[in-house]
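Possible regression after last week's pipeline update?

I re-ran a chain I had predicted before the update to compare outputs. Posting the input and the new output here so someone can diff against the archived version. Not blocking, just want to make sure nothing changed silently.
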Amino acid sequence: MLQRDHRFRTQVHQLTDACVFVAAFWLAYVLRDNPSLSHLFGLKAVSGDEFYKIEWLCLVIFPIAPLVLESQGFYNRIILGSRPAMLWSLSKGCFIVTIGLVLLLFLFKQTPNAPRGVMIFFGIIGFSLVWAKEELLRLALSSRLAKAQYRRRIIIAGTPSEIIRLRRMLQSRGDDSIEITAEFNIAEATPKHLIELLHEHSISGVLVSARHTQLERVESVIQLCEIEGVEAWLFADFFATQIAHASFDEMFGHPLLIFRSTPEASWQILAKLLLDFFGALTLLAFLTVIPVIPLIAVVIKLTSPGPVFFRQQRSGLNGAPFNIFKFRTMGSNAEQLKHELAAMNEMSGPVFKVTNDPRVTPIGKWLRKFSLDELPQLFNVLRGEMSLVGPRPLPVDEVKRFNDLAHRRRLSVKPGLTCLWQVRGRNKITDFQEWVRLDLEYIDNWSIWLDLFILLRTVPVVFIGTGAK
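New output (post-update):
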């Protein structure tokens, strides 16, 4: 199935499932309002009117339930695929949604309005309704009429070797939505033969591979499909890439093939921006009111001469320099003494790390242990220069000393307060190659869920002071 078709169908399924879960929540109250059913399960009868006291939860269920199912891989499967795999991912998703609602009700002290029996009914009904929807869909798509409408009949066009490769690739996927009807040797066959195949087999698309063929012949196939009103799919793998993903776009009406190795604009990117802004704003307000930040500032001012804050040029997105803010943890002449400590460097590569750095003040050592010196970087997050999660920003002079161009790919996203390096070893890692590998692993596997996971893992690491120097 084409990715765009798959994305659209997934959105339709998510919208349907969101409505199903909201209906399940309402049905759970209807069933608990039935005295005979309540007595059957040994539960105290609950008035259905109680539902209206927490109907706001429907606004939570509607967007969250499909996202939870997606996180469990419920939508990343073939529709007519394995039934046990579908049931397993669905059961996990329903369990997580149910437990999440219970915790939310407990947090807002709404448990009298939604007793545990209602939550149990909700989980069971939600699972049953989504399962029933999937079975009905499977039954509908298995019919002869649906297969005729659902399947795309295509022709594979290319050289004989390319045709064999494409056929094997499509068959290995086990996708029932595509049916290979005919083959067209683009190097030898004539356009007239392609026309005959289009008419004879009622073709809906032509898959063209242009890896080793002349572009003139590919162009003639596309033009012929254009005249016939048949879709032409150009398999754009003529440039070998290891990491970058190709996507199609337009600029001023001209088609563009884009090779991107970083996350593209999406709802998840928007969620990350909102998480960064409101997360940093909330933390700054909380730490100011407590007041952690003012106390740290006063202690630094009273215990050592010099400014409270330390500013340094760091490399940000795509290497653009910006001023990073930190609480000062060293003497005011720390930068001047750095070259004298070069022999003590414990990190391989261009970065500088020392365990017992003599430039660090006594209070600075404590601040570093619990990463409290990094708190002012929340202002950098508010300014849009940093993110809550991302590769740690390095000084500009250290970035200039990168001896491997591949290391610069860590600059392709905004730097952050924490990342995989912090939660998987922090300063215990002394090999810069390993540090970069973890940053690139984060970039290649990024999702908003990974950011949330890293933030949750960072909290105990910071409080315990694991691996701090």
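Follow-up from reviewer: compared with the archived run. The chain is about 50% helix and 15% strand. Marking as no regression found.
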